[in-house]
Amino acid sequence: MQINLEKEGLRKDPGGLLVVFQFAGKGIDIKRIPGAEGEIAESLLKKIELLSFAGKAGQDVVFPLLKKTGFDEVVLVGLGEKRGDLSPALREATGHAFHIARRAGHKKITVRIPGKDLAKDEYVEAITVAAHLANYAFDAYKKSNGEKRAEELTIEVPEGASLTKLRTAALKAEIVADGVTVARDLVNTPAEIITPSRLALLAEELVKASGDTLALTILDKADCEKLGMGAYLAVGKGSDEPLKFIHLAYTSPRKTKKTVAVIGKGVTFDSGGLSLKPADAMMTMKCDMAGAAAVLGLFATLNRLKPRVNVHGIIPAVENMPSGKAIRPGDIVKAMSGKTVEILNTDAEGRLTLADAMTYTREKIAPDVMIDLATLTGACMVALGEEIAGVMTNDRALAGKILKSAKTAGEKMWELPLEERYKTLTHSDIADLRNIPTTRYGGALMGGLFLEEFAEGKPWAHLDIAGPAFAERPIASYLGKGGTGYGVRTLVEYLQSIE
Ligand code: BES
Ligand code: ZN
Ligand code: ZN
Q: From the CA of 265, how far away is ligand 3's center (Å)?
């Protein structure tokens, strides 16, 4: 979808759908609807009254074709109260408008920024990102491929706003949205296609597309054996698909001393292994590489956004399958850090892959900060529901920064504690650790506490994205079912906030 920024009302015959945002409690200024004069204005006001439209979030009124305005249809969309940060309201209202456009088959959409005070970078970004995400459809496997999408969005800004500045903001937002789309497509594509080898190939393609300014190392099984990655290797034993340990690196062209490593869980399919999942729980397990997808989505943006920080992306890609070669409950493995782990449930595989990825990251990269993203536990969904990710960290300052970035980016996140006293629950009688705790409570924290053993005190944050990474029902007006690309927006925001 093409994005344009224009001064309000200057285009001749723009066509398509005009979206006019309306705050609640402000009184309806009917003059903002083009062509609304005299009797027409009266009938429009009548319709607004009949539908009890008051500018509340989720409300809309669609008006019939007003030919002389040059648009085919006009819709008033409620924004809710004009209070505080308006980005969430603008995202929701934009998503809402796109639903209306899709239903009516409009290919061209015009959105008017409601007031000069709102002609700000962050609001243009909010609208642009939400529009792109709302316009997404995973229809590669459908006969109607491509039919649903709008082709053009024009954001009209009031007189007096700087078009050049706002155009830059829109461009940045488009890059971020492209990254999210990369991640969504990866999550939505079946696991038969998105194997560890395919993820490695996609990483290679990203490097090529970057004009070779990104660097890439891919380790195969033999390389990982040499490094002693016993935990990660154990997960791959049951699969016929070879595992691939992917290491991407972006070196900032701007002056920086900071290095951040982002680690994504890349279990391309999680059957549970010999601790096989029930059929219902397995249905969505192509999404178990959503952390990896977020890392690849992020790397698709870095070369274009050029944040002032060096970034490493680590993906221990592997498929978790049952077979005669698979790891068994009760087996003990030695992780790269030297710690031994008793594997009591082969379905708690994510933490095994991440444990070795974290050790590799500490030893080979030694970044200032390490952040992992993982669809790690169903328990995190029990705790926080489907829309909110859990964040656990050993560093207070990092907690604040990540939560702030998530809020700005519009991704929901909540901190969970790494309670000191719970630590022993992940300790084994016969090995250093066990991969499932000795309690059935607090599963999300137990995952975090297990991983903390491999951070060895280095600043680290763990994002459990099991809920929001894959939407079984829409998680926002602009984020429909399937892969959501969760994490890309927060990571971009966080990296760009680093000075
Ligand atoms: N990939 C799953 C977690 C998951 C569940 C992600 C639902 C997305 C949606 C993970 O590998 C897993 O199976 N975790 C187990 C851990 C348990 C055995 C300690 C779980 O959550 O049941
Ligand atoms: Zn599992
Ligand atoms: Zn898993």
A: 8
Q: What are the backbone dihedrals phi and psi of residue 367, each rounded to the nearest 5 degrees, phi first?
A: -75, 170
Residue 363, pLDDT score: 98
Residue 66, pLDDT > 80, answer no
- The response to whether residue 348 sits with its C-beta less than 6 Å from ligand 1 reads yes
Token pair in block for residue 97: 């408008």
pTM: 0.97
Which percentage of the chain shows pLDDT scores above 90? Answer: 91
In this structure, how many other beta carbons lie within 10 angstroms of the beta carbon of residue 455?
Answer: 22
Count the neighbouring beta carbons within 10 Å of the beta carbon of residue 3: 19
Can you tell me the distance from the alpha carbon of 291 to that of 488, in angstroms, rounded to the nearest whole number?
9
Q: Which residues surround ligand 2, an ion (CB under 5 A)?
A: 270, 347, 349
Whether residue 168 contacts residue 274, with contact meaning beta carbons closer than 8 Å, is answered with: no
- Residue type at position 27: G
| Ligand 1 and 379: CB distance under 6 A | yes
Give the DSSP H or E segment for 342.
strand 340-342
Catalytic residues: 277, 351
Average pLDDT value over all residues in the chain: 96
Ligand having the closest approach to the CA of 434: 1
- Residue of 376, 372, 398 whose CA lies nearest to 262: 372
Q: Are 300 and 492 in contact (CB under 8 A)?
A: no
What single-letter DSSP state applies at residue 3? E
Q: Is the pLDDT of residue 25 over 90?
A: no
Is 378 touching ligand 1 by the criterion CB < 6 Å? yes
Name 397's Cβ contacts closer than 8 Å, sequence gap at least 6: none
Yes or no: say if 202 and 332 are a contact pair by the CB < 8 Å rule.
Answer: no
